[in-house]
Amino acid sequence: MTTDATGVRAAAREHAVAVSALLSAVALALVFAVVLELVPGGSLPRPPEAALAAVPHVNAALSLTAIVTISLGVRFARRAEYGRHRVAMLASTVLFAAFLLLYLYRVAILGPTEFPGPATVEQLLYLPVLVIHVTLAVVCVPLVIYTLTLAATRPLSDLFDTRHARVGRIAASLWLISFTLGTVVYALLYHLY
User: Fold this and answer.
1) C-alpha to C-alpha distance for 69 and 11, rounded to whole angstroms
2) Nearest-5° angle of CA 95, CA 98, CA 102?
3) Are the CB atoms for 154 and 81 separated by under 8 Å?
4) Domain parsing of the chain, residue ranges
5) Which tens digits make up the pLDDT trace of 63-104?
């Protein structure tokens, strides 16, 4: 590692909360900018319609895979298999990032997907599930970034003296619920109605 990289890592280690807060703010600002249609869809390259139509199905597969990798990561941590835990949680993070990039790209180009079912189902089932899913996804961002920051800036032996495990348990639980509810939203939008 170079001296500059070592210095950055040391600074991130010393200020993990601030680094996590900054990265979370940037990530969430991007998400809200796209969802609130502040990013002009015309500024992005438009793929073929088949590619745009495939995004929800690809994202459902990414979500289901992430549910598996998060569950495995939790299991590995409980068994003190920390190398395998790290791989599973990094895979979960990559899956989440891929999901989010594809979702935001599609929303920027097409806008949010309208619920095609009956208004009563929308009001009583779809919207409550969607609100909980989105709220948990937003809450997960800083928690996941914080646990990743702790893990990336410390050797394993030092992680036991941090809040990595405690915050990680909360993040993993909320992440699992969010991905599961996202899969329910997908089923409601693209299969049931």
Assistant:
1) 30
2) 140
3) no
4) 3-192
5) 999 999 999 999 999 999 999 999 999 999 999 999 999 999
